[in-house]
Amino acid sequence: AQKITQTQPGMFVQEKEAVTLDCTYDTSDPSYGLFWYKQPSSGEMIFLIYQGSYDQQNATEGRYSLNFQKARKSANLVISASQLGDSAMYFCAMILAGQGAQKLVFGQGTRLTINP
Amino acid sequence: DAGVTQSPTHLIKTRGQQVTLRCSPKSGHDTVSWYQQALGQGPQFIFQYYEEEERQRGNFPDRFSGHQFPNYSSELNVNALLLGDSALYLCASSAFGTGAYNEQFFGPGTRLTVL
Q1: B-chain residues within 8 Å CB-CB of A101?
Q2: How many pairs of residues across A and B have Cβ atoms under 8 Å apart?
Q3: pLDDT tens digits, residue range B9-68?
């Protein structure tokens, strides 16, 4: 069965510092995708970044990068030069590629607070 | 281009009542998934609809049912509400395809409170 584990319930970071949010996953399927979503207090899930299991390079999207270590089954999110607007809940999620109905399996989330 | 919309934004019901939540997918999307997010938890998959049929279901009782209309919009119905059904209900839409994954776009959610 698929499982996502986020071990950091909360993180506090000073503005402009880099922050790493941890995510480990468990699946026996060789083909999968890993996502990070940001959820502000408004509730909407905002897509940040995606990494496919066969991608050779780590994904990057602006200030976001994904540190993908396949052998360790980890997919940590790195936010460079944090901003006050980055304060939110962050969720790591996994999807099994190619399945007929693709459901996302989410972790418990990490609440990130950026201090001025 | 309108994104995923959900209605209502907030809803208060009492135990035993029934509720219907609505979702309109992003333009060009034909697949709708529903998730339940309890306070302090990650979203949990309820079910997914494509071509007006339920394609996969998560670990939710039959009190949770859904429907998809020919215009791809969807409804989530919950009967015999329990206090534990209080949650944020998220709708996500995607375009069914043969790629490695179908990116899901989320709506703002409906916050249901059961008293």
Answers
A1: 48, 50, 55-56
A2: 64
A3: 999 999 999 999 999 999 989 999 999 999 999 999 999 999 999 988 999 999 999 999
Query: pLDDT at position B96, please?
Result: 76
At residue A58's C-alpha, the angle toward residues A44 and B102, to 5°, is 45
Query: In this complex, which of B44, B55, B108 lies closest to A101 when CB atoms are compared?
Result: B55
Element (H, E) at A110: strand A110-115
Report pLDDT for B17.
98
Closest approach of A113 to chain B, Cα-based (Å) = 15
Per the structure block, which two tokens stand in for A1?
């069965």
Count of other CB atoms within 10 angstroms of residue A95? 22
Q: What is the DSSP letter of B102?
A: -
Of B33, B100, B107, the CB nearest to A52: B100
Task: Please list, residue by residue across A30-46, b when 16 or more beta carbons sit within 10 angstroms of its beta carbon and e when fewer do.
Answer: eebbbbbbbbeeebbbe
Please tell me which residue of chain B has the smallest CA distance to A41.
B108
CB contact under 8 A, A104 and B111: no
A5-32: pLDDT as tens digits = 999 999 999 999 999 999 999 998 888 9
- At residue A63, the 3 state secondary structure works out as coil
Where is pLDDT greater, at A42 or B63?
Answer: B63
Q: How many CB atoms lie within 10 A of CB B59?
A: 7
Q: Which residue from A minimizes the CA distance to B4?
A: A44
